[in-house]
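@channel sequence for tomorrow's demo:
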Amino acid sequence: MRLRWQSFVDEATNAPYLARLQEHLTATASEGTVVEVVGMSPPARDFGRLSEFRCSISAVSNAIDAEADGCDAFVFGHFQEPGLYEARAACGIPVIGIGESSLLWAAHLGRRMGLVSIDSAFTVIHLEQVERYGLGSRVVGIGAMEARVEDFEGAFAGDVAARQALIDAFEQEARILIAKGADVLVVAGGLFGLLIASERGMSVDGVPVVNCTSVGLAWAEMDVRLHRMTGIVASQGPSFRLAPDRARGDFLSR
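structure tokens (generated this afternoon):
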């Protein structure tokens, strides 16, 4: 099985993160699964709608390329996953988003969920995500660590104090959500998901923490296996009907 994992960070600027992500995914993937991590330049460096939209265009193009290269699935390794539905309608292979898969898994683990995002700039986008996936009534709130991509560089380079500061920021927001009734917590950001990837059974005051990086990988492998087992693909009804070759050609020639 061959998966292509699309990160939304720059391969040069965030090399320690991408190297660690590749190492983690390779170590935790099932036997026979190969994960290819790719970055993006310019990355999603200015948080907000315009950057998300720009990055979505690159991600959809890369998803089409992944299918042409023979990959079995394409993974949006960015929790906001802009362009997820468009990529799903542009490819004949499974297209997975770590946001969608994590939220659906969290709905299995608990009744009321709280999301902890990297930055409050994503709050509205996350609210739109949970509504899109039919989970709006089950979200008690969305917290924000107010961290920047640069804040993670030291942590991934081995700075213990930097790592702990980020964990403390997460737990602070998590406890606010728990006080509102959350019984499952979702890590709404791949950077923090990787930072705590080595933690097993992580919880805050007994409330389980869903790691979007781990769930995204497991979901992608499951999706490919089910596709091979049953032949089922994404809906070819109105939601994700595969775009014709001309439409894909027009998109790629923009």
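heads up for whoever presents: Strands lie at 2-6, 34-38, 73-76, 95-97, 113-117, 139-144, 184-188, 203-204, 207-210.
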